[in-house]
Amino acid sequence: MAVKTDVLSKAEMGGESILATLAPRVVNGLRMFAARVLPPILFLALLLAIWEIACSSPGATLPPPSTVLSDTWELIVDPFYDKGNLDKGLFWHLASSLKRVAIGFSLAAIIGIALGVLIGQSTLAFRGLDPIFQVLRTVPPLAWLPLSLAAFRHADPSAIFVITITAIWPIILNTAVGIRNIPQDYRNVSRVLRLNGFEFFFKVMLPATVPFMFTGLKIGIGLSWLAIVAAEMLIGGVGIGFFIWDAWNSSLISEIILALIYVGLVGFMLDRLIGFIGNRVGGFASQ
Amino acid sequence: MTAYLSIENVGMTFKGANGPFIALRDIQLQIDSGEFVALIGHSGCGKSTLLNIVAGLTRATTGGVLLQGKEVSDPGPDRAVVFQNHSLLPWLTVYDNVRLAVDKVHSKTKAKAERDEWTRHNLALVGMDHALDKRPHEISGGMKQRVGIARALAMEPKVLLLDEPFGALDALTRATLQDTVMELHAKLKNTVIMITHDVDEAVLLSNRVVMMTNGPAATIGEILTVDLPRPRNRLTLAGDTEYVRCRKEIMEFLYARHRAPAVHAA
Q1: Which of B57, B50, B13 is nearest to B29 (CA)?
Q2: Residue B146 contacts by C-beta under 8 Å, 6 or more apart in sequence?
Q3: What is the pLDDT averaged over residues A38-48?
Q4: Which residues of A touch B (CB under 8 A)?
Q5: Do A192 and B85 touch (CB under 8 A)?
Q6: Per-residue pLDDT tens for B161-177?
Q7: Residues 107 through 136 of chain B touching chain A, CB cutoff 8 Å
Q8: Does B182 touch chain A (CB under 8 A)?
Q9: Beta strand pairing status for B70-71 and B19-31?
């Protein structure tokens, strides 16, 4: 708004300057649009066209995009329906997956940061725990599922455990690296000032480590989202992973494709959300 | 002997991979209250180690440091350090960097409003009261060092330790900061130990210049008293016979009698 009034008032003062002021701005705006927005749209259209042509032959095993759209139109326009039991709109499936991720990821963040601080600060803890973590972090998420089902005996806590155990490793390791990278100068300043452990933690260690922590959190949220879809396929119940598995069992290939698109979009937004919070909290560090 | 600050028989041996490494030996130095002492020597002669021992950041292997008759065993605000690379906390503003020190050191002796006033006062002393809300990355290297000095002064230290504070600055910025440090020393009568590589800086600022021999097993080679009246002016001193004598004395020590080891000189 401010820009517009600025332009107008200039235009009022000198009649013919309106074009001179406005034209470069419009051109610039168009240029930005062309540079940023057009390429992805073009390539998306190209991909869809290839897909459409490839899957239009009578013997094709997968539906072309036009069929996907017409098959799933009801799901797209009404994501909020709820016919009881497991027959719910996509919103509810995504919401319950997100809820599991939120709980599992929060646990991973809290425990991961605490363990990261421990092995970052204490050489003994680092020597003792780091080899164990290095082995455990290579275990694939789904390999934990039978074990957690055996331990918790319920689907939901098992899925949450799988999320936590998947997301926790990058959080631990990145936090530890951050703590180890705190410049000796900051530690010396704290010692000269005689900051106690509590003050050192909140005033020096935490702010200095935030950028590293968020690197770990960002990797962690991506892994949780990867793991939840897989875990839900096995445990059932409401959730986007179960939705995909259920669609496969009913041979509704179009619904699978729609769900994949949603999974991708939600994963992308989760990643951006953590990135955004990270920039807000620790933006100073990049400068 | 009851000097204000007394470094007694300090020796430092590091345990290295190839056996023990003797960095410092037999360091004896008495410093009076209000004195400005420069430590000069080639790289690797253990100047920084000695300063860290006085600061309490490093424990000496032998001997010890007495400040007003009390042994120094750990770091503390009575021996404030200005570090070479300023070491301001990048997530705090200029004001908050100094305020952190003020809050910590004067929490019992000053009320909140007084601590605010004291923070501003010390930043004004170094001419940085115009940038209170700037963050360290927004100000120049010289300004960062000024804030570092303000933070150290705000602790009201008994001894101010300057670890090559101007080493990373260009010559012009260096000169203005040296003038600031001289003015502050004249005004506040701090006891200062400063590490430097710069012969002119040492002569201009100090009452005494402590020249260190090369490591390993570095020790004090000579101590030169700079008998120049204060306030000192770099322009009028340039041709002064006492200034030239001191300068020559240090140069001879550093470049004739105790040349840098070949590896360092290369």
Answers
A1: B50
A2: B126, B127, B128, B177, B180
A3: 93
A4: 183, 185-186, 188-189, 191-195, 199, 203-204, 207-208, 282, 284-285, 287
A5: no
A6: 999 988 888 889 999 99
A7: 135
A8: no
A9: unpaired
